[in-house]
Amino acid sequence: MRAVTVLQTGPLCTVQDRGRPGYASIGVGCSGAADRHSHDAANRLVGNNSDAATLEVTLGGLKLRAEFDAVVAVTGAHVICRVDGTVQGLNSTLVVRAGQELELSAPTWGLRSYLAVRGGIDVPAVLGSRATDTMSGLGPEPLSPGTVLAVGNDSGRWPAADFGIPPPSSRATLHVTFGPRENWFTERARSLLLEQPWTVTPDTDRVGIRLDGSEPLTRAIDSELSSEGMVLGALQVPPSGQPVLFLADHPVTGGYPVIAVVTAADVSAAAQLTPGTQIRFRAR
C-alpha cells in the first residue's frame, strides 16, 4: 500500500499544495502552503511536480509510519528529523523503508516544516486543490492520529537542489510596497511603519500575524471604509493601530485600510516568524 500513517500531529498538521486561485469572487481565498518557498523546495528534492501536496507541520511534533519504501524530504523550520531514532538531514532526500517511523522535533528556528513524499499526498481535491483552508473550511480536515494518507503519482523529474536555505535569526526584514490606502494614514504613521521595530505576537496562525509596535499607526481619515478585496501579504490596520499581516488563509475582503503589502518574495519568510520575533519593514 502506497501510504503513510499519521501517529501524532503536534499542534497543527495540514495537507497543503499551491492553493486554489481564481475563486475570490465567490468568497474563497487561495490558501495553500504558508511558506511556498519551502513547500516547493521539498517537492523538488523528491522529484515531485511543484503543485504536489505536502504536509505542513506547525511547531513540529509530527510522527508518521511509512507503509511502503518512501522517498521523502523535510524543509522549512529547523527541526530534528529522525527515522527510527536516527537523526537525518534536513533539505535533503531521504528513504524511509516500509514500517519505519519518521518524527519531527519542535523547531529551534522557524514555525512551519514541509514534508514531501515522492508522488505527493493523494487526498480528494476541492475546487482543484488539496489544500486545507482553515478559514473557509475547504479541503481535508487538519490531520489527526490514525489518519492514513494515500501517496499518489504526482512526480516528475528527479531533484534539483536550486534553492536557498534561510539562516536562523531572531530578526527579519520584510520588503513592502505602500498602498492601496496609505493616504488614510498620517505622514507620521507612514514613517513609523518603516522606522520602528514590530514584534510578532502570539496571535498568529495561517490567517495572519498580529504585530505590536511601541507606537500605533494613526489614521488621517476616520471615515468608515467599505469592504474591499484583500491580497496575500496585506498589512491591514484595525482601530488599535497595530497592523495585521495577512497570510495564506486570509479573508478575501476586509473593512480596515491596508497601508502596505509585503512583497510576494518575502511572504514565505513571514510565514516562518515565531512569536517574539522582531521585524522591520523596508519600502521597495
Helices, strands, pairings?
Blueprint: E1 3-8, E2 12-16, H1 36-45, E3 54-58, E4 63-66, E5 70-78, E6 81-83, E7 86-88, E8 94-96, E9 101-104, E10 109-117, E11 148-150, E12 171-178, H2 187-195, E13 198-204, E14 208-212, E15 228-229, E16 234-236, E17 244-246, E18 253-254, E19 258-262, H3 264-270, E20 278-283
Parallel strand pairs: 12-20
Antiparallel strand pairs: 1-4, 1-11, 2-3, 3-10, 4-9, 5-8, 5-10, 6-7, 6-9, 12-19, 13-14, 13-20, 14-17, 15-18, 16-17, 16-19
Which consecutive residue ranges, at least 5 long each, have pLDDT under 50? Answer: none
Helix and strand pattern: EEHEEEEEEEEEEHEEEEEEEHE
Strand content: 25-35%
Mean pLDDT: 94
Strand order of the largest sheet: 12-19-16-17-14-13-20
How big is the Rg?
A: 19 Å
End-to-end C-alpha gap:
50 Å
Class by SSE composition: mainly beta
- Give the helix tally: 3
Q: Quickly count the domains.
A: 2
Residue share in helix: under 10%
* Number of DSSP-assigned strands: 20
Outline the biggest β-sheet.
Answer: 7 strands, mixed, barrel
Give a verbal description of the structure.
- The protein is mostly beta strands and 284 residues long.
- It has two domains: 148 residues, no CATH class; 113 residues, Cyclophilin-like (Cyclophilin).
- It is built from three helices and 20 strands.
- It has a seven-stranded mixed β-barrel.
- A hairpin with a 2-residue loop joins strand 6 and strand 7.
- It is elongated.
